[in-house]
UniProtKB/TrEMBL annotation, chains A, B:
It comes from Mycena albidolilacea. Residues 360-524 form the Acyl-CoA oxidase C-alpha1 domain. Its cofactor is FAD. Residues 560-745 form the Acyl-CoA oxidase C-terminal domain. FAD binds at T223. The keyword Oxidoreductase applies. It is found in: Peroxisome. This is Acyl-coenzyme A oxidase. One of its GO terms (cellular component) is peroxisome. It comes from the Eukaryota. Keywords: FAD, Fatty acid metabolism, Flavoprotein, Lipid metabolism, Oxidoreductase, Peroxisome.
Length: 748, 748
């Protein structure tokens, strides 16, 4: 029999809990499971086990067996409580095998396995796999503690990467936060890509090995106190000093203080500093320089460099976003990254013609990372909220006669179904869109200036998609939080962290309103463009009469949906392109004024274009799958996504020209209802498909086993404030003596 | 001359700063100002002064004089920097006197004065008025520190209230957060109102004086780990024990743990506990009981009561939202609050027929408080973002030739104008709506069961308005934060706190989807209702053909706007009321199923009704003002509000039935542009009108003087992490030794 040891465990009520350990290889058959079940039943207690096969459920005694994790996993209970039973029942309703979908999401079974192994190893290093323990960050970490935590998981990620040679933890952390959350994250996501984009070959040969082996740790130092992603406005100067063959890096004003770069405060040894190149009083514009910030021996800041942390933020307090004031700091001439512009010893300046655009390349790469990974956090939030919604019972429907019906799980309510399954559909939509867009920019860091046209297209595509994706993620995560009611506001739900880490993505690497306008500007160009226009925007030159489409509209067919989305995008782009022209010719505005007048219109036009391309990616991805239950569930999600856009906050553009009418909307409402009826049984399986480990979710509400309330109370009792007060007779002494007692005694 | 002392001050760069003190009475004329100006010029340094007259601006040397605060106020600078000059110039463009609007907002000049005095006093007590000092809460408070901070300002509020006999700090804190942020806040907002609603006269005579003099501190103990605002689902029991004439309060399950009540952890001495009344095994439903939690002498929890804090939340960590587990806790029979239900010594139970509804009264009162005060936080966020937008220069418009034009202030961009001024318009809209609704529920705590009909109306009105107002506030605050770019993500911007404290309002005291449905249910009733229907919903019985309205639509007239909003509301309510009937008669669904099918429709119908009433309140309030510049600016804001709803995320309902068309939308876009052109010069004056003290905003971005960058750097250098690291050679030793050095050395 597989079980070879049992241990008591659990910090509270320990008499209720047991650990069942066993020899891994024996748990590989139905017979082994039965043996474990018997064993567990016999002890009538919670068991922990890690079988190699799928979970099952028997009669009254439950045993949940999780095959995903190559380690002991706490999912077994012979006396499952009500919430765990509800979760099991919901999971059992699935119409498809979530592992098939996992394989689609992560790129095949081997990739899934490698990813699981990486998470398992890092969770062991970080000691986050004990679900009975309140995660440290939900306790009482002050800022220093949070920063140390960031250094801790940052180092673990570096070690994992170097030892096992994979890139799982390059773009994300072990909690699926973006790399920004680690003090060393942007070393990989911005510093190294910037080197590849901006360094001349001999410079790259010197710096890249140092960076890739972490002998130096880099920050990407662009934004200033008074300047963000508008690179041309930067004020830091790099003045060439020919006698010494050096540049002098200097912060001439308060507002030129470098401000925000991740890791700049206390973690980075070097930085790529964007600064205005000054030669003989002439400003040649912003160029990249490598500046050593700290001694590699003891990390003391080098002379003339003031470094510090910028203080508490809404999130990402695990990283030392920092500031730097440079006071006449001298660096060698060869520290100008010289792939696209060079300064000779005599001060002669030479540059590629496309140089001014290429300095934006690093931001472009970073935007690609946001798009390529941000949806994972939306999927996490949807996972937490959907799982909570099957075990949380709250209220009844109106017109229910009270004594006769019990409270309903949240997922029984149509509003909850629609909100959360729409979020799930958006996570998939963004994933497929990111994949389609990926080919446009994945190779960018290795492209030279010969590819300027494709850079322009990649820039335009990615700008709008970045805005669309980050806003969809942030809004969705916040909506998921709201769907969890009060408990979603608790740190231990994991949702406040998800909100805090995603809400800023609308700002990072280019503010979304600005991003949409960059796409819009490209689209307007395409309306008037020539024959060599890219296929993705060719539809803008179609001249079909939109009115002709109207009688044929079937809002439920994915092909028709695509035509509807395309019609909206084409109409809005053309409408505002025309209005833009008219404001100049008719009203005599200059182009900048005319653009400002129609700015909101351009933003909505770009949004419509991006949404069309997102739907297109989703529809195409579904079409490429083999017929079967997994394809069917994705097809339903795709329909829900499309109809959700039509009846959503940006839906007006489908209707105001009469292309769609109330009858279509009514059909959409009925269709959404049917889709939801079909998708609700798959809700838990959809969360399982994303394959998030419980430790990566770090959520008392979202764990795989559904044991929400007991876990919440176990974690609550571990809150450090409670532990401290318990030692002083359960009275919070400092507060009572100084504040409460004087109030009670009227001594104010 | 008025100046009688100067002091150096400021924690950094102290040589640059001076304090000018003076005898208050001398600064009351233009001559005094000139004298101060001369004095300041003479010293060429920053001055702090508090004159009794309005601010002025002279030539190159600026002196900003703020008449609002009865204390020294740091707004003067003879060497104004660029940001301060931009702020002064923007302020000088106003078309109206902001003090007139202040008077409208706060209810007359006397009320303004009293409010200012209260803020000045409490800011002195809390030592928050020094703008050179990083506010403590943006430094490094751990949870204990945050809780102590809450007790600190909570006690100050109690003292201020008892000493000066006003209610300024009953619904809000000195930062305009809602009372929930103070450990003693709900004592006034829920405990005392619940007493008034639920206690029998002799009980009230006993408990109310104790509560009002703070001899006891109360919590309102309703929600449980497994149950929220659905009161009927609560599981805590209160079992009558006739021999001892006692009730036994007990938590029978994990999920019945009382969870969330503010102050319950460590601050409250007593609680009103909602529990199921059990007499001889019969459950009479949920009733209110007064339970003493802690000894009034030493605050030790009484036997059988486990109390604790629920841990970190997304916000409100200054308050000890707590949990309580009751184990057979005995209380006297007379502790059942017996206004609406009584238990005789022999166990005989008597109750008013309307009792089951009346237990909701306390939540109703709390909802009223959210509606009546929540918009202040939206106005704060708009204030911070608008002020920042006039001094922050960032980028140029597309098609601007670069060398020729400098960067533009954010408020030059149409998108920024539209987003932020729309938020400002919404703050006013919610303010006027709250006033109109106020009469419907203000007197509720004193109403008895004789007023059941008006309670139903108040409940229906307030439920939807609560949902509308809290969502508008939370979305708006988040949008304002995004409008501030990266800096809006910094704690010291004040915006993350505003986001965290408002986002939860959608959940508190009734989840918004549920709230809208309660309004919808009432509206559906009204469609079929009789002659005694309330005036506010009478329009639902109009039978005018909506199509007849169409040719007459003038989207720019406020009367027409009201008709457009009313049409949408009427159409949607009737459409879903019909669909609801049809689902029953045609599809054979029971009412609960039919409701669930059309739930999203009912939510949108209720939203449309509420939005109509909000616009109605705004339009009526503007009409009642005297003609003049102040009325004109409010009229413009009202227009912006209305057009923003039409072209906003819920605008589809105006268009899908063809009532409005693309031509209307185009007219609206032009009109919005004109309104914005007129409102932008008033932007800073609109922020001044709200009269928020700098200390209450606690924002490095939103201060009155516009000195953003210098203040940010001053505050950043005070970040405790930086101060600590400065002592160890500017190296973060623990992080370097344990994490960074091993990485650099390849020792992983």
């Amino acid at each position: 029999m597989g079980v070879n040891r049992i241990d008591r465990c659990g910090p509270q009520n320990s008499s209720d809990y047991f650990t069942v350990q066993y020899q891994k290889q024996t748990i590989n058959s139905f017979e082994s499971l039965i043996r474990i079940q018997d064993f567990v039943h016999q002890h009538a207690a919670l068991a922990r086990c890690q079988p190699q096969t799928h979970w099952r459920m028997w009669k009254e005694g439950y045993i949940n067996l999780e095959r995903r994790w190559d380690r002991v996993f706490p999912v077994c209970c012979s006396m499952a409580n009500r919430q765990m039973r509800l979760m099991n029942e919901a999971r059992a309703r699935a119409s498809f095998d979530p592992r098939e979908l996992t394989s689609i999401i992560f790129g095949g079974p081997e990739a899934v396995k490698a990813c699981e192994a990486a998470f398992t190893r890092i969770e062991q290093v970080l000691r986050t796999s004990d679900l009975d323990k309140l995660p440290d960050t939900y306790g009482d970490l002050d800022r220093t503690g949070q920063f140390l935590d960031g250094l801790h998981f940052g180092k673990a990620m570096v070690a994992e990467k170097l030892k096992h040679g994979h890139s799982v933890f390059e773009p994300i952390t072990p909690r699926y936060w973006l790399a920004n959350a680690s003090p060393f994250g942007l070393h990989v996501v911005m510093f190294i890509p910037a080197l590849k984009l901006l360094a001349a070959p001999e410079q790259l040969a010197y710096w890249l090995p140092l960076a890739e082996s972490y002998k130096i740790i880099g920050a990407y130092c662009q934004t200033e106190l008074g300047h963000g992603s508008f690179i041309r406005g930067l004020q830091t100067t790099a003045t060439f000093d020919p006698p010494n063959d050096e540049f002098i890096i200097h912060s001439p004003t308060t507002s030129s203080t470098k401000y925000w770069p991740a890791g700049l405060g206390y973690s980075a040894s070097h930085a790529i500093v964007m600064a205005c190149l000054i030669i003989e009083n002439r400003n040649h514009g912003v160029h990249p320089f490598i500046v050593q910030l700290r001694s590699l021996e003891d990390y003391t800041p080098l002379p003339g460099i003031e470094l510090g942390d910028i203080g508490l933020k809404a999130g990402y307090n695990s990283v030392d976003n920092g500031y730097a004031v440079f006071t006449h700091v001298r660096i060698p001439r060869k520290h100008l990254l010289a792939r696209h512009a060079q300064v000779a010893p005599d001060g002669t300046y030479t540059a590629d013609s496309s140089r001014p655009k290429l300095v934006y390349g690093t931001m472009l790469f970073a935007r690609g990372q946001l798009v390529a990974n941000g949806y994972l956090q939306l999927a996490q939030a949807a996972t937490i909220a959907l799982r909570y919604s099957v075990v949380r019972e709250q209220g009844t429907l109106p017109f229910t006669s009270i004594p006769e019906v019990a409270e309903l799980p949240l997922l029984a309510f149509r509003a909850q179904q629609q909100r959360l399954l729409t979020l799930m559909s958006r996570a998939f939509a963004l994933m497929f869109a990111a994949r389609s867009a990926g080919s446009a920019y994945a190779a960018l860091p290795d492209q030279g200036h010969t590819e300027y046209r494709s850079l322009e297209l990649a820039h335009a595509t990615l700008a709008g998609l970045k805005a669309y994706a980050t806003q969809t993620v942030a809004d969705g995560v916040e909506d998921a939080r709201k769907c969890c009611g009060g408990h979603g506001y608790l740190a231990m739900s994991g949702l406040p962290d998800l909100v805090a880490t995603t809400t800023v993505l609308a700002t990072l690497e280019g503010e979304n309103c600005v991003m949409y306008q960059q796409t819009a500007r490209f689209l307007v160009k395409c309306v008037h463009g020539g024959a060599d226009i890219d296929a993705t925007v060719a539809y803008l030159q179609d001249s079909a009469d939109p009115e002709l489409l109207r009688p044929a509209v079937d809002i439920l067919d994915s092909g028709e949906q695509l035509r509807i989305f395309r019609h909206r995008a084409m109409r809005l782009v053309k409408e505002y392109a025309q209005a833009f022209s008219a404001s100049q010719t008719r009203d005599g505005l200059n182009p900048a004024q005319a653009w400002n007048t129609h700015m909101m219109g351009f933003i909505s036009a770009a949004h419509a274009h991006v949404e069309y391309t997102v739907l297109q990616s989703f529809v195409e991805a579904v079409h490429q799958l083999d017929t079967g239950p997994t394809r069917l569930v994705l097809q339903r999600l795709c329909g829900l996504f499309a109809l959700g856009c039509i009846d959503g906050p940006h839906g007006l553009g489908f209707f105001d020209d009469g292309h769609l009418r109330a009858t279509h909307l009514r059909r959409a409402h009925v269709a959404v209802g049917e889709l939801l009826d079909n998708l609700v049984p798959d809700a838990v399986a959809l969360t399982d498909a994303w394959n998030f480990s419980d430790a990566s979710l770090a959520s008392a509400l979202g764990c795989w086993d559904g044991n929400v309330y007991e876990r919440m109370m176990r974690w609550t009792r571990q809150v450090p404030l409670n532990a401290a007060v318990a030692k002083t007779g359960n009275v919070f002494r400092p507060g009572f003596e100084e504040f409460i007692r004087p109030i009670l005694k009227g001594k104010l």
